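Question (not urgent): is this output format expected?
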Amino acid sequence: MSDKHYDSLPKVHKTYANIIKSLLPIGDNPKASRDELPNATYYVDNLHIDQENLDDYREICGFIDNGKVPITYFSVLSQALQMNMMVKEPFPFALLGLVHVENSVTQYRPIGERETVQMAVKFDNLRDHDKGQQFDFVTTVKSGEEVVWEGSSTYLARSRKSEKRVKGVKREKPTNVKPLYKDGGTHSVFEVPEDIGRRYAFVSGDFNLIHLHPLSARAFGFPKAIAHGMWSKAKCLALISDLPDACRVEVAFKLPILLPAEVELLAEPVSVLDEEDSDSSCHFALYNAKNDKPHLAGYIYNAQQDSDDED
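Got this back:
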């Protein structure tokens, strides 16, 4: 096992040269096997929130300043560890080929912005997919011995071989049906500016070239720059706003948001969640406002149901 402990989050610029090298189309790591992920966990033993960065994150995503850490913020912070793991460990895939397809975050209680926490990130669950292979980055945040937040980001590494259906792998049906707007729900149509990718990159540290400029995006097969998936998830949750103190939010990323864009958010009322019903959920989705094509689909659950399922 190749574990590594940090006293604070590593700075992106310290690994930036390796990150850029990993983004170039030079093939997968020749020393790594595509049959396994590195058995490594990276830790930040004393994580203090950078107040300036948090303020910038709230502003760009639309979260209110309530003294609490936004539910998606630790996903952003964990990316510094993820990038280090992919360039320092025998990672089997080229970063260029990775597609962020799903994200799940669970907050077990509100977390104060001045709390000192511990963060751990590891690889997990390498599996076959119709278009290649998928794996997860799993993040755990603790306050002392208490787990206060967990997250999982699923990435697809597309195969260069023919995309034949993998036996035994279930093909998921896309969730393209719009949620029904009800009293107490959320309906918002808003503009996504052309520079949102560059602005979010400076806040998140994710400088993937597909987000920064139309010219660099075209080099990787996109007609325009595209918005970060985690920005779109965060923006939706900021608009929904009234989340339970303990909840899980799962999102599947669909079609990319080509910048600039006009998008439409529809969300069922959070009040439909029933703490006594482990199957209750609130559905939300983000669409292109002009042609109704889906950008993401998600569900909000009470976090309590996780412990119910384990009993």
